[in-house]
UniProtKB/TrEMBL annotation:
Protein name in the entry: Nicotinate-nucleotide--dimethylbenzimidazole phosphoribosyltransferase
Keyword set includes Glycosyltransferase: yes
EC number: 2.4.2.21
Organism for this UniProt entry: Nocardioides furvisabuli
Function according to Swiss-Prot or TrEMBL: Catalyzes the synthesis of alpha-ribazole-5'-phosphate from nicotinate mononucleotide (NAMN) and 5,6-dimethylbenzimidazole (DMB).
Active site: E319 (proton acceptor)
Similarity field: Belongs to the CobT family.
NCBIfam families: cobT_DBIPRT (TIGR03160), PRK00105.1 (NF000996)
């Protein structure tokens, strides 16, 4: 039986409302186009909300999807895999990098253990309620997941997005956490876009030249191992992804299906967005890229999606931090469409 999924096209934010928002933007008491991307963001959010001017963003949610990766035992990261568990605990305690940014910008953060290779059952039950497995396979040696695990991960990511939207979330963000995860994310981008390992391999948490060469070889071996099997997105996630990355894909597809805008983060988020766009063509119209990571694969992935990141400040933290950091620009877009006078109101008649 052919298990290949039929791509499900996604309708964009309302073109009618987008046109009305552009009309309001063009009529503001500013020189035409003077608000640049801030104005464009306001118009995009208006179209996404179906309302001009758009409503203030009072309910913004970030979900950090955490997991370990078999490749971490093969010298591809500057840090040991034990950091993943430690940082899940740190996010729960509200003391991670993203925790500080999220408090500053009024974003509610939750962290989910999708595939951390540790027992986190002492944490609040919701953290581990969707655990798929302990760690995903080392992709240069074996598939990351079974096809069934990939399907389950996609479904649970979708479920997470649905729950947040049902609970009133106006804007969603995805974050990632997992030592070694820039290796499968780079491999996903390479396989999806037909790029060689050299062009997608970055320094991740800060590996040295020897580490980079090892990581490049791991990505190349993973691509060679799975050649010819990765045109179907579910197969791609099973072969080269992980449970946490597959869950992120499911989350992104579902958010766009529900018509809720998403701010993407760094490499993992944008690599998953490439796979989500393949599963749900048109979904990218519901996403904005929060920042440009230092990872080369993210640049390729952004380009393929036609997304220009809002910030370019050398961030490479993950955790959703670059999405949260970009939020003031989105709020600014809403403020100008709501509060700036029209030129017709201020000019003497
Ligand atoms: O978001 C990014 O683009 C990004 C770039 C480099 C590193 N990270 C974070 O660092 C970890 C992965 O780096 P590595 O070197 O272990 O593959 C993981 O926890 C990510 O959240 C994140
Ligand atoms: C300390 C630390 C925090 C992180 N947060 C996301 N990835 C990370 C990797 C490390 C090493």
């Amino acid at each position: 039986m052919d298990q290949t999924r039929i791509p499900t096209p996604i309708a964009p934010p309302s073109p009618d409302v987008a046109a009305r928002a552009q009309e309001r933007l063009a009529g503001l008491a500013t020189p035409a186009g003077a608000l640049g991307r801030i104005g464009e963001l306001g118009a995009w959010l208006a179209a996404a909300q179906g309302e001009v001017p758009p409503r203030p963003l009072t309910d913004v949610r970030l979900v950090v999807l955490a997991g370990d990766h078999g490749v971490a035992a093969h010298g591809v990261s500057a840090y040991p895999a034990t950091v993943t568990e430690a940082m899940v605990r740190t996010i729960v305690a509200g003391r991670a990098g993203v925790s500080a940014l999220a408090r500053e910008h009024g974003v509610a953060v939750s962290v989910l253990d999708i595939a951390v290779d540790a027992d986190l059952s002492d944490l609040p039950a919701e953290v581990g309620a969707r655990k798929v497995r302990r760690g995903s396979g080392a992709i240069h040696l074996t598939d990351a997941l079974t096809r069934n695990e990939a399907e389950r991960s996609l479904a649970l990511g979708a479920e997470v997005a649905r729950e947040l939207v049902d609970d009133g979330a106006q804007l969603l963000m995805t974050g990632d956490l997992g030592i070694g995860n820039t290796t499968p994310a780079a491999a996903l981008v390479a396989a999806a876009l037909g790029l060689p390992a050299d062009e997608v391999t970055g320094r991740g948490t800060g590996i040295d030249d020897d580490g980079w060469t090892r990581k490049r070889d791991v990505v190349a071996a993973a691509l060679a191992r799975t050649a010819g099997r990765t045109s179907d997105p579910v197969e791609l996630l099973a072969a080269l992804g992980s449970a946490d990355l597959a869950a992120t894909v499911g989350f992104l597809v579902e958010a766009s299906t529900l018509g809720v805008p998403v701010v993407l983060d760094g490499l993992m988020s944008v690599a998953c967005a490439v796979v989500a766009e393949a599963m749900a063509p048109g979904a990218a119209a519901w996403w904005v890229a929060g920042h440009r990571s230092t990872e080369p694969a993210q640049a390729h992935a952004l380009k393929s999606l036609g997304l220009e990141p809002l910030l370019d400040v050398g961030m490479r933290l993950g955790e959703g931090s670059g999405a949260v950091a970009a939020l003031p620009m989105l709020r600014s877009g809403i403020a100008v469409l709501r509060d700036v006078a029209l030129l017709s109101e201020v000019l003497p008649s």
